[in-house]
Amino acid sequence: MSVTADTAELWLRRFHQAVEAGARLVCLPHAGGSASWFFPMAKALAPEVEVVAVQYPGRQDRRLEPCRTSVGELADELVGLVAELTDKPLALFGHSLGATVAFEVARGLEARGIVPEVLFASGRRAPSIERDESVHLRDDAGIIAEIVALGGSDASLLEEPEVAAMVLPAVRGDYRAAETYRYAGGPRLSCPVVVLTGDADPKVTPREAAAWAEHTSGRFELHFFPGGHFYLSDQAPQVLDLIRGWRPGAH
């Protein structure tokens, strides 16, 4: 994919000015999520850290575009865009599906000789750990039930048929990407990997979280927070402190 200003604007969103920021954090959302999910994080970290949030196709202002239904597609399109953001120290933060996409983006960057400062992998099992999951094959009611069970912040909105009709195609496509992903092997990352997960997250066991250590030759940290899959909603101050601690010069 050729990198143009229009393409970058479609995929990458900046919610708060942080021109003098000493570092840049690219944030990738969960299945069904959007760039705006990171609005509070962007506000809290500015102006020291510039947050650039990724907007996947198929939702909100990109709802007329076809969803990408594989992690590989998403990562391939993002690597070139993110590679243009390296005029400042660059870190990646991905939640759930976004963590897997961020991992593949990090691999693509390192293949180009660009080593991120750190990869924050939130709410997601290690890439090499497979689960037999098929939420994307359920009917609409089954997908909504999954979102409700996980405690997604927008779950109540899906009770409105008009909203569900707009949102569910992207959710289904994202779940397909997450559930059909298979790690292809290859060199370990050089960058540090920091894993964050809720201690009651049904999507990630402690063993599955710890297995991220196998995917980097750099520093590895594992942090548990009280809560489930969307622990971030209640543990934002602690997560933000962890991110701030990884600014250049902090280690």
Q: What does this molecule look like?
A:
Helix 3 (71-83) packs across helix 4 (97-111). This protein has helices spanning 5-11, 39-45, 71-83, 97-111, 140-150, 161-180, 206-210, 232-244; strands spanning 12-13, 23-28, 49-54, 90-95, 118-122, 193-198, 220-225. 36% of the residues lie in helices and 15% in strands. It is built from eight helices and seven strands, in the order H-E-E-H-E-H-E-H-E-H-H-E-H-E-H. The protein is an alpha/beta fold and 251 residues long. It has one domain: Alpha/Beta hydrolase fold, catalytic domain (Rossmann fold, 3-Layer(aba) Sandwich), CATH 3.40.50.
Keywords:
251 residues, alpha/beta, Rossmann fold, seven-stranded mixed beta sheet, 8 helices, 36% helix, globular, AB_hydrolase_fold, Thioesterase, hydrolase, TesA-like
Morphology = globular
Number of E-type strands = 7
Q: Nearest-angstrom radius of gyration?
A: 17 Å
How does the major sheet shape up? 7 strands, mixed
- What kind of assembly state do the chains in view correspond to? single chain
Task: Bin the strand percentage.
Answer: 5-15%
Q: What ranges have pLDDT less than 50 throughout 5 or more consecutive residues?
A: none
And the CATH topology? Answer: Rossmann fold
Q: How many helix segments? A: 8
Strands of the widest sheet, in order across it, are 1-3-2-4-5-6-7
* CATH class call: Alpha Beta
The CATH architecture: 3-Layer(aba) Sandwich
- Strand pairing plus helix content: what structural class? alpha/beta
**Fourth-tier CATH superfamily name:** Alpha/Beta hydrolase fold, catalytic domain
* SSE succession: HEEHEHEHEHHEHEH
The separation of the N and C termini measures 35 Å
